[in-house]
């Protein structure tokens, strides 16, 4: 019996082996058939600006294998190909069709339009690069079609309307009476403007995505004791604004703050404001000290000019994003509080819509945390201990009876993350006439950098006039101040933070109304404390 059994066993194994080979071969054939070796591309250019007449356009294709965008080497392209148009641009439209071999393994494709430097910052062709992800749909239809349509980057909201809205919602700023560094203006540095370069930190994503090793900064002299006039910087845009690189299909780090475009959408608008401080002393004297500080807040308003939401930023976070009725305002001017630090520190200038509370922070390392115990300490609306900087046109009489608190007693409706649930907020009325320290002397509109000093194309005002003292700042991309990167100096017991990025007026990633619609209440929490709502209001809360 044994010989027969052995023959049967060998025969069975041979059959199974042949079946295995057949299955493997079948799978390989199936895999090969699902792999696209080439794909057809069709690109069109529309509304080409006249400045590009005579230029040769090319299309750069970069394929990446990046299943996990945070992986170390995924930003190195696995394949790079370029297709150039056969003739220079001669009209307002152009197109190209070509077939391109594909790498066997890839996840992301960037398609960049090259040869358009003459209109960079003036006309946007849309997302550039335009991103494609490798999906099953490409197997079914191996063709990629895309239209690059150029649009002017001018702001189509008339200057007069922008100015009216900016004045209408300019802030009432509340400070501790002993605050040393009050808001000033950036124009006083105009004669000292000189761009320099510094090395980007090793972990900066631009090193991977763009191959960028340096960035720009401007070092200012110490002028903190002179020219203290307060100016407020603003920009009004349609809320439906898009920035290149924010595609959901894009790899992180390819955002281009100079390539954006406006759409009217439902007519909602965003008013962005920036407040300039000459110095940031940090939450303590030990940490986050740097020259220059540019704090911001934004309002989402309806096409009729009625406030809907307010967003405040600080410490590289969205500190608050809430309904405008959940804060105090006077004649549409939001009442905002600026924190000082503890242990005698003047503070890092974060702005809150509520006063009389504290938030505990991180000092950056365990030693400084232990030594300095950093806090944001927000002032109260208190005639004895606080001072105000007011809009220039707000009368002193309007401050006779300022409402602080919600003005309502029904607390049955609460927010999930609202600290106000268990904290009674009795409404009080304050005579604030004696709190006035100074006025916001000037509101300055931030102009589109690519159009400065030029005759308009689409702008309804027909021009882009800018104060010569401001043109260099409006065009500048980089950091404002002589501390462009963090620097821990244990010997001095000092942590120098980063000077602020120049206001990319419509592309500050914190000013999220540009990129997404607010859907939920948001506020930043740290170790102890919350910058979120301290009361909930209704239509009666804003003081007329």
From TrEMBL:
Which keywords appear in this protein's UniProt record, sorted alphabetically? Lipoprotein
Sequence ranges of Basic and acidic residues compositional bias = 518-529
Key word Lipoprotein present in the record?
yes
Q: Where is this region: Disordered?
A: 498-544
* Protein's name in the database: Lipoprotein
| Organism whose genome encodes this protein | Leptospira wolbachii serovar Codice str. CDC
């Amino acid at each position: 019996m044994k010989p027969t059994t052995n023959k049967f066993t060998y025969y069975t194994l041979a059959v199974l082996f042949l079946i295995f080979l057949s299955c493997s071969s079948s799978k390989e054939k199936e895999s090969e058939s699902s792999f696209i070796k080439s794909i057809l591309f069709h690109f069109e250019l529309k509304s080409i600006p006249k400045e590009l007449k005579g230029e040769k356009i090319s299309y750069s294709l970069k394929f990446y294998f990046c299943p996990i965008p945070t992986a170390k080497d995924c930003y190195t392209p696995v394949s790079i190909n370029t297709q150039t148009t056969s003739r220079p641009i001669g009209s307002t439209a152009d197109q190209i069709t070509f077939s391109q071999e594909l790498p066997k393994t890839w996840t992301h494709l960037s398609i960049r339009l090259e040869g358009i430097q003459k209109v960079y910052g003036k006309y946007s062709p849309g997302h550039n690069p335009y991103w494609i992800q490798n999906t099953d749909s490409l197997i079914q239809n191996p063709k990629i079609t895309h239209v690059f349509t150029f649009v002017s980057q001018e702001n189509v909201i008339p200057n007069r309307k922008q100015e009216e809205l900016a004045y209408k919602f300019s802030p009432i700023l509340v400070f501790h009476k002993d605050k040393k560094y009050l808001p000033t203006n950036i124009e006083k540095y105009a004669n000292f403007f000189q761009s320099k370069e510094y090395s980007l930190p090793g972990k900066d994503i631009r090193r991977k995505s763009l191959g960028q090793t340096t960035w720009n900064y401007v070092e200012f002299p110490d002028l903190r004791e002179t020219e203290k006039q307060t100016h407020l910087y603003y920009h009004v845009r349609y809320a439906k604004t898009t920035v290149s690189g924010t595609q959901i299909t894009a790899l992180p780090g390819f955002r281009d703050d100079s390539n954006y475009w406006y759409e009217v959408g439902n007519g909602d608008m965003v008013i962005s404001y920036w407040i300039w401080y000459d110095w940031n002393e940090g939450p303590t004297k030990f940490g986050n000290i740097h020259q220059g500080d540019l704090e911001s807040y934004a309002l989402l308003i309806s096409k009729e000019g009625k406030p809907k939401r307010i967003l405040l930023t600080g410490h590289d976070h969205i500190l608050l994003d809430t309904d405008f009725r959940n804060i105090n305002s006077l004649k549409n001017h939001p009442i905002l509080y600026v924190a000082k630090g503890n242990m005698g520190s003047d503070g890092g200038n974060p702005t809150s819509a509520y006063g009389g509370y504290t938030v505990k922070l991180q000092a950056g390392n365990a030693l400084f945390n232990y030594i300095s115990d950093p806090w944001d300490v927000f002032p109260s609306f208190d005639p004895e201990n606080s001072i105000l900087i007011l809009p220039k046109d707000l009368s002193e009489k309007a401050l006779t009876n300022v409402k602080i608190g919600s003005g309502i007693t029904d607390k049955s409706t609460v927010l999930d993350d609202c600290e106000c649930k268990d904290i009674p907020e009795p409404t009080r009325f304050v005579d604030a006439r004696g709190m006035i320290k100074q006025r916001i002397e000037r509101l300055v509109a931030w102009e589109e950098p690519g159009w400065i000093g030029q005759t308009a194309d689409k702008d309804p005002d027909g021009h882009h006039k800018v104060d010569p003292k401001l043109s260099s700042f409006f065009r500048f991309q980089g950091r404002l101040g002589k501390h462009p990167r963090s620097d821990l100096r244990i010997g001095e017991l000092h942590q120098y933070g980063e000077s602020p990025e120049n206001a990319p007026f419509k592309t500050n990633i914190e000013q999220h109304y540009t990129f997404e619609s607010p859907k939920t209440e948001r506020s930043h929490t740290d170790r102890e404390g919350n910058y979120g709502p301290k009361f909930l209001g209704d239509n009666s809360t804003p003081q007329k």
